[in-house]
Amino acid sequence: MVVLFYTGYTLTRIVLVQDGTETAFANADEILRVERGLGMDIELYLNQTLLSVPWLARTANVFYATMHFIVTLGVVVWLYRYRPHHYRWLRTSIMMATGVALIGFWLYPLAPPRFLHSEGFVDPVTALHSLGLYASDASGTLTNQYAAMPSMHAGWALWCGAIVFKLAAQKWVKAVAALYPATTVVVILSTANHYVLDAVAGIALVSGAIWVSWVLYIRCPRPLIVARARISADLARRRGGTSGSGTGSAGSRCPTRS
Q1: Is 55 helix (H, G, I), strand (E, B) or coil?
Q2: In the chain, pLDDT over 70 holds for what percent of residues?
Q3: Residue 246: predicted pLDDT
Q4: In this structure, are residues 166 and 78 in contact, taking their beta carbons and an 8 Å threshold?
Q5: Alpha-carbon gap, residue 186 to 181, rounded angstroms
Q6: How far apart are CA 186 and CA 196, in angstroms?
Q7: CA dihedral (158, 163, 165, 166) positive or negative
């Protein structure tokens, strides 16, 4: 699944290279115009505030480049190893959200604020010659730097934070889990990698995916139960089976309880 999604991500980058980046910058102007109209354009203020504290800016650059992958992978492994009865539906939720996000990257390419120098934004990685996700030419060519809408940094952080907060036993772990999504959102805005609106979009997308996955796996709707029972009965008849009550019982179960 990881290989499949990375392939899709790479294809969005290839399409962008072929079509040019004009649309991405036009979309960036549109996002800023909407945010200013709503009075929620706080990205420039956060960017300037972060740059005034160089050591904090360098820390934010490293956080943005590493924690997105380390924490998400760590939570996936933790779920699989220590909370296996929750693994399947939660894994499906993040895969579902990521798949939809890839469509968003393709249909709505968006230049990040750090590319909008005329608006006053400054890339802290470039300004401070710091470590960062796009610090080298190689990393820049392997990633789609215009895949800002929706923000999967914000979405994945919410997924990790909500899961660990809900399923962890220790109170201090729950506290860290609650702080992680908020910290991630502040970092992606202050480092000029995302806008408020694409952070909101990423959070909404993951929230919706978690709900849909919960409905399908945990709280099976009646139409799904009936459909599963019919399929099971049909397969039993084809195999020459005659057990009706056993098939109905199996068909009424959710996938995670089978």
Answers
A1: helix
A2: 80
A3: 45
A4: no
A5: 9
A6: 10
A7: positive
161 by DSSP, 3-state: which? helix
Task: Name residue 66's amino acid.
Answer: T
Please say whether the beta carbons of 148 and 114 come within 8 A. Answer: no
Q: What is the largest CA-CA distance in the chain?
A: 75
Contact 238, 187 (CB under 8 A): no
Give the mean pLDDT of 122-145: 70
> Residue 87 has what pLDDT?
93
Q: How far is residue 109's CA from residue 104's CA, in Å, rounded to a whole number?
A: 8
20: burial class by Cβ within 10 Å (0-12, 13-18, 19+)?
A: exposed
Find out whether 13 and 103 touch, Cβ atoms under 8 Å: no
In this structure, what DSSP letter does residue 117 have?
G
Q: One-letter amino acid identity for 181?
A: P
CB atoms within 10 A of CB 159: 27
pLDDT tens per residue, range 84-121 = 999 999 999 999 999 899 888 888 999 999 999 999 99
Tokens of 79: 């779920």
User: Which pTM does this prediction carry?
Assistant: 0.80
Separation of alpha carbons 41 and 73, rounded Å: 31
Contact 103/212 with Cβ under 8 angstroms?
no
> Which pair of tokens denotes residue 188?
């992606």
